[in-house]
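Changelog-adjacent note: as of this version, every example in the card shows the full chain rather than a window. The one below runs 286 residues end to end.
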Amino acid sequence: MDDLRSLLTTYAYNITGSYEDSKDIVQDAYLNFMNVDKERIENKKAYLIRTVINLAINFKNRQKKLVSEYPGTWLPEPVATEKADTAINRKEILSYSLMVLLEKLNAKQRAVFILKEAFGYEHEEIAEVLGITTENSRKLLSRAKTELKNDDVSFRKKIPFTYINKYAEAIRNGDMHTIEQILNDDITLVSDGGGKVPAAINFVKGKADAIKFLQGIYKKFYTDKRIEKSFINHQPALLYYDGETLTNCQVFFIQNDHIRNIYFVRNPDKLKLLEENVQESFIQSK
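Full-length structure tokens:
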């Protein structure tokens, strides 16, 4: 049954937004599984999936209370999706912008939405997994869709690097004209430093303020830093290094050929596993 670990970690991560905590959730599920009477479990895979999903929902409920006291904006932990990884099913990871949008939902709404819309579960299956009625499952999905109705929901669509290449070159060269062309008029910049490193507490909205912010932080912090390209949760990203240490993961959401959102993950706790996985992928590709 240990071969299910990567699948189970993916379920937990999509619900919690925390890769490191999801690994712990899966470990707890296996410990629980070891202590039950296996003869009474008809479908062991379904049992483990149900256990992990419910543990993830409980974790998310606890996490929501902590997020309310979080310094600044809480963003999901980024996961590189370029290379195969035995620890998680990268193809099944939701897009980063969707992970951010799902923070609008409560934990159970989020689980129902993910199971139905991303993984194709029927409401009867969701009801069995979550221990609710089929009607309740339908109501939770309806409420989730109402919360997200004005947002662009993209599950795992991989966006090419074309515009990010333009962006990176324009920022490096101070090319204001190109930057202005590729940014959406209502672009929003969101930063997460976790109170541990400098980061913008408030959103930066609108093209004019975004350009000033992007140029300002590049000139102040990144002109002499190594920058690598990556795909984070199926979306193009730039990774900024200070020596060998990853200090900023900049994820881009592109809509209608323009950059609509940029997410800056700077909290070192959220970059730790990403740095390890990117380095491991680099070594494997050599």
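Structural remarks: The two ends are 32 Å apart (CA to CA).
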